[in-house]
Amino acid sequence: MNSSQKIEIIVGFSTHRIEVLPFAKDFMESAEVIILEEPPNEKFCSVLEGKISEEDYVLNEEFWFPEFEKQTLKLLKNFHQQGKKIFQIEPYLEGVKILQQRAEGIVSHQSIDEVLLERIAETEKNAIGKLLRFYEVSLTGDFEKIVDSVKDFSKADAERFRLRDQLRVEAILKVLLSLKQGLKKVYVEAGTIHLYFKKLLQLNTLSLGKVSQFFLLQKVLKSLVGKPYVFPPGELLTLRYIFNRKENPKTENLLAARSLVYIKIIPKEELLPHEENPFPHLKEELHAIKLIERLDFEDCKRLYSKLFWIKDYKEARKLVEDYLKFR
User: Fold this and answer.
1) Based on the domain organization, do 196 and 314 belong to the same domain?
2) What pLDDT, on a 0 to 100 scale, did the predictor assign at position 4?
3) Poorest-confidence range of 39-48, 102-111, 116-125?
4) Taking a C-beta distance cutoff of 8 angstroms, is the pair 158, 151 a contact?
């Protein structure tokens, strides 16, 4: 690579929702290289080359949002045919996959640094342990202890995110350095919480190019709320720990408490956009955030016990709306 040539590196902060795909497509179209935020899959190239269908690929893997995955694959297949290079780069999750295969007695042929794999294993064990502790404490009904367990998990999750982002930046840097001369633009997919990833990528590619960031739905959000993105309380809490913000128990307790309510009033299933509602997930999440921002710690405490056993997010949301109406 010519040292004088600067690459334009675009980080697209995205969610796994069909409603973001038109915006992702616009960025991908102008890039020569597309870097996805997912571990390598041996069948991925077969999909791009048309040897297996998107439906078969999704059917044999576990995806939380299968329709999003199928639509994304169709998009990527078209870009592959245009000659764009597409990479799956997520070393941490690749390591987790290898650990799971070993636990199941499956021999993996992927080469990986065993010291690094041990570090991934310890990080994952710590985060999962804190999550299991949260589930255990949540059954006690002791709200203060539940909030503490949320914070403990968020701290462990923050450490996991920091390692994930560090490993991914290192892997992306190797790919960029290995590519032929003449590369002008790269699109890098990243989850919305991966702000630390963008910071690291920027610091590590100063000699290669310029990094810019876009929240894929930022045009829509700016027209609605005047901001490029609105983070839910759980992500705000985790981001505080990722960036080692000064400890503030009152703020952290409130974010943890609000996250317990928020998670009950958003849909878990995949929502499909249509003409009357082109951004169904965004609409639901913005409404939920507006509701929880009106709740203080004691409000969350009162609501949590009532919400705990409710499965239907619409029922849970109505309970919160009624509470605020008659508070």
Assistant:
1) no
2) 59
3) 102-111
4) no
Each residue of 161-214: pLDDT tens digit?
Answer: 999 999 999 999 999 999 867 899 999 999 999 999 999 999 999 889 999 999
Secondary structure of the chain: what % helix, strand, coil (to 5)?
60, 10, 30
Which residues constitute the domain of residue 260?
Answer: 231-327
Give the H/E segment covering residue 163: helix 143-178
321 and 238 together in one domain:
yes
Q: Do residues 220 and 235 both lie within one domain?
A: no
Is residue 28 a contact partner of residue 79, using CB atoms and an 8 Å limit?
Answer: yes
> Is 46 in contact with 104 (CB distance < 8 Å)?
no
| Residue tagged 């919305």 (tokens) | 192
Please state, in angstroms and as integers, the Cα–Cα distance from residue 165 to each residue in 4, 20, 144, 162, 240, following that order.
27, 22, 31, 5, 16
Q: Per residue in 263-298, pLDDT tens?
A: 999 999 999 999 999 999 999 999 999 999 999 999
Task: Check pLDDT > 60 for residue 16.
Answer: yes
